[in-house]
Amino acid sequence: MKKEVLKIKIIDKEVGLPEYMNSGDVGFDLRAAENKKMLPGAEEVIKTGIIMEIPKGYVGLLRDRAGIVTKMNVHTVAGTFDSDYRGEVSVVLVNLNDDEVLIEKGMRIAQMIIIPILKPVIKEVKSLTETKRGKKGFGSTGLK
Q1: Domain coordinates in residue numbering, the chain
Q2: Closest by alpha carbon to 53, among 86, 98, 18?
Q3: How far, in Å, CA of 24 to CA of 29, rounded?
Q4: Which tens digit of pLDDT belongs to each residue from 23-73?
Q5: CATH 2.30.30.40 given to domain 7-116
Q6: What is the 3-state secondary structure (H, E, C) of the chain?
Q7: Are 44 and 91 in contact (CB under 8 A)?
Q8: Among 34, 58, 75, 76, whose Cα sits 20 to 30 Å from the Cα of 27?
Q9: pLDDT tens digits, residue range 57-70?
């Protein structure tokens, strides 16, 4: 199996390369390249100090880091990084805490997973295949 390479240009040497913290990790951690105060309920865009070249046929998806969620109640707003994007990777965070929090430079703020994509042809049709589930959506299977 061919190993893909994720090319990264560092624009803030103090932050360095993202890294997988454990050998079994699917996502690598992204670090803040700036200090930023976040008021309760506020959303802030945090720079990471890196630019990526995601291989064609793949996408980078941002995810919460458990540590920043459980310790600070700060969440990552979903982010999608396409293979042709060449700007600085930034992360949108939201402070769901009742207090102001400080995002510090070098703090691991989010994780990114790189996954292969499928781009099917989009086609309008008159009908769809029936399923047992049908239109049942949010919460339709219960909690237990």
Answers
A1: 7-116
A2: 86
A3: 13
A4: 999 999 999 999 999 999 999 999 999 999 999 999 999 999 999 999 999
A5: no
A6: CCCCCCEEEECCCCCCCCECCCCCCCCEEEECCCCEEECCCCEEEEEEEEEEECCCCEEEEEECCHHHHHHHCEEECCCEECCCCCCEEEEEEEECCCCCEEECCCCEEEEEEEEECCCCCCCCCCCCCCCCCCCCCCCCCCCC
A7: no
A8: 34
A9: 999 999 999 999 99
